[in-house]
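HUMAN: Mind making up another protein with tokenized structure?

ASSISTANT:
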Amino acid sequence: MKKFKFLDFIKPKTIQLYLVYMVTGMVLVQIGITWFLVSDLTSNILKEQIGLRALQTSQAVAEVPMIREVLLKKDPEGQIQAIAEDIRLKIGATFVVVGDSSGIRYSHPVPERIGKYFVGGDTGPVLMEGKSYVSEAIGTLGPSIRSFVPVRGKHSEVIGFVSVGYLTENVQKNIAAHLDRPLWFIFGLTLIGFFSTAYIARHLKKVTLNLEPAEITNLYLERGAVLETIREGVIATDHRGEIRLANKAALKYTCFNSGELVGKMIGDVIPCAGLNYALTTGEGEYDQERIVNGQELIFNIVPVLQGGVIKGLVASFRRKDELDRIAHELSSIQEYSELLRGQTHEYSNKLHTIAGLIQIEAYQEALDLVTCESSGYEDLIMFLNKAIPHPVIAAIVLGKFNRAKELKIQFDVDREGTMVDVPDWIKQEKIVTIVGNLLDNAFEAVLGCDKEDCKVQLSFTDLGNDIVFEVEDSGPGIPPDQIDHVFEKGISSKGTGRRGLGLYLVKQRLDELGGFISVSSDGSEGTLFSVIIPKIRRSGI
């Protein structure tokens, strides 16, 4: 258990510790390799230099005429020892040995060993073949690096040899002394490595907004999940305009696949989006209409700034008709709210009138007022309950009846119609959209006329294989040149603003149901909209 606790303790938890551990490991490995190479190279070079110096000294001693003469006479007076010791002390060698052709020493740092055979077993090449060389062997003084050079007579015959040597122990001390500077150099590089690690870790911490690796990983995963849950298309680019990411909604709206979008320049694949302006100026754009691949999109573009420098941008967008549909629904809710407010105000006044009539004891007049108000309304409710046993469809007709009363418009519902046989596959909400928008359009048409008999008529039937609705108004009609365009989005004869959407939605819902609509108008008085919805579902719908 303690072992695991220790491992948890030393396990890096921050990006700084990650870098410190990684760089420390790399530096230690580099130090080990560098030290091995430097020490080995230094040792080889020094050994080679010492061997070369020993060889040159041996060659010089072997060429001394006195050494030859005395060696031939067997050195009866010990002159070779004096010459060899004098040279040894001057060059700092461990020994300078002169021997004859049989290997007998004539000089040695330890005088007692003069006259004895040379030890080491490496004299063969110099005595037998007359070679000059450097070798390592163990002599009477210990392991040493020594050179051998033959001493030749008048006829170039080998009459002896000269050996100059240095103890391996002294050579190693010399090597260690020469490694001090490389060692300090490596130590300095190590310190620089550690300080550089701390600086890089601090800078990286700043670049990553003080986030640790685990936090960065979590943010990346969370970002992906968030982007895929957003219904809006989202595209992000870097400072050059290269697309770095795009969610599924963006691919859907732009009609591209991931390979065609991500990694490409925004100006090349979506030039009409106008995103380069934000990258150039650093200014955001909001609710801008752009057409991409034939689709009207609403863009919100925000540049990504860091320290006042543009690092990229993020653009979100949705189809314009989706937003228009939401706006229309909100407008409908506002209209219903105003309708309820008006009804509340109207019935409040009528209640006050009835209360006043009762207080002045005009009971008959109060009864007549209540009867007048309730008779038509109750008749309509009874009719709707019988003819349209679908609450949602009946509710829209009743709601429009109340709206017509508030607007002082005569709204007639054909009491011969029935709407009982509505197939289950036809969603009632779509019929509500169709009928509601056609009636709203008719109400607006008659509000603009100056005639006193402004009225709207609704008829419907479910007899046969189709569901049929007809909405007729006594308004000014539709000019002939506009009849073919009334179902296009944004087309309206009642001004600009958020108009021209009601009939567009009607046409959309009919296309979804496989139905169709026709318009009859002479351009001067009245308009008739006829809607036919087949009861049998067509393939592909």
Q: What stands out?
A: The radius of gyration is 54 Å. The chain has 17 helices and 14 strands. The mean pLDDT is 80.
